[in-house]
Amino acid sequence: MVDDSCGKEGKQLYDAVIVGAGLAGLATAVGLFERGITNIVVLEKARALQPVGASIALFENGLRALEYLSPSVAERARASCLPIEKMVVKDGVEGHILHEKIPNVHVNYMVWYLLQQFLDERLPPGIVQLGKRVDSIEVADDDTAGGIAPITIHTSDALHDISDEVDKPSDSTNTTTTSIRARVLIATDGINSTIRDHLFGQNIVRKVYHGKVSYRAVFPLALLKNGGETICPAAGVNTTFQSDEQGKLFSYRETAPGILTVTSMAPVEDPTEDYHAAASGTSRERFRRVFRHFTAPEVQHILSVTPPSIRIDPIYDVDVLECWSKGRAIVIGDAAHAMSPSMGQGANQSLEDASVLVHALTDIFTQPKTGLPEDRSIALQEALDTVCRSRIDRVKRIHAASRARSFGNNETCKEKPLDLTSTELMELLIEIDSWRAPLDEKTSVHLAP
């Protein structure tokens, strides 16, 4: 069934259509909304925002970006975070300490879905539309919308679960399709971005497998009680276990008050079995089998109480997209530069992207509409191009360091544990940490109460 009751000229026209309700997409929407740019919509193919994933690292650069986008969300995030004050590496078999380190930069761990929830709750109902898959996009040939030819986005109902790796085609006989228009299209639809493919063609970036799979879980800390004692490091301590097996590690920490997150890695040449376990509901069994040789008491206790739902993800990144914008459409976040988790910068760089983009669009959408319409169109295109130019060198350097560290970590073991102390790593983290958010003119006027 096709919903075309509005007719071609009657399709809803938005200032910005954002595709993807992950952190980058919701952060961008919140940043625009806070500045009075409310004629926006976020399209998300998942039918519900679910408590999936585990922890993310929020460095000061990411928190500064979040504070720029929404002080109220940043306040909730800081209240939820538990700063990491010590990093400990232990023997995965016997449990004794191999080495420990006090971080040189401030890093906080946060539950991923809580940040998504905080962002979503900052937006009024109707802006985030769930179960909407983008099928195609096109730029209109007419001179509508005040002289700015709008981008048309054709959507249909999504008929799949959020955990699907690859988007599935809809059954056109049972699916409602709609078309909306946008002055600006913002793609934040992740590493497997369909909008990136629509804009630049398939295989425009190389997707690189890092030879390992992550196993992540989040559950109440109370499950770790053994008698009257809780088997967990003190708040503020991140503990990682390694054994003789190269590239295998098991990490956990209290990430929010009363919530434990587990982030583990194992080398896997062919992740087919892991894809199957994730899809068939046997993820917990796979997780336990992979780490059965980690006999340290803490690890075994965590494995024994782990909830049924384990997030299993083969680790990939993509080469940084050389050009992020085309006309008045732009790709940001993982869709433009998905990173390995080895530097903990994926979410932080997405938040930086969102803040720079919001700043660029605020300067245009909040100014009086003077001059020729085509001038505004050119201004939007130039603004999007400037976002890419201002971000790409920094992103490339962090991405390269993350990729190199990820492959280097594949060779670590208890005899050669994770490097927490190298001067090069510390210098890069300090440089990353020093980033500052843009400054809007008349910020106090733009920000919503």
Explain the overall architecture.
By secondary structure, this protein is an alpha+beta fold. Helices cover 34% and strands 26% of the residues. It has 13 helices and 20 strands. Strands 1, 2, 8, 9, 10, 11, 19 and 20 form an eight-stranded mixed sheet that branches. It has a seven-stranded mixed sheet with strand order 6-5-15-16-17-12-18, with helices on both faces. It has a three-stranded antiparallel sheet with strand order 3-7-4. Helix 1 packs parallel to helix 10, helix 2 packs antiparallel against helix 3 and helix 2 packs parallel to helix 10. The radius of gyration is 22 Å and the shape is globular.
Helix coverage percent: 25-40%
Q: What structural class results from the helix and strand content?
A: alpha+beta
Poorly predicted runs are 1-9, 141-147, 162-173
Oligomer: single chain
Shape: globular
Mean pLDDT: 86
Question: Mind describing the biggest β-sheet?
Answer: 8 strands, mixed
Q: Can you count the beta strands?
A: 20
* Alpha-carbon Rg, integer: 22 Å
| Total of helices | 13
Cα(first) to Cα(last) distance is: 41 Å
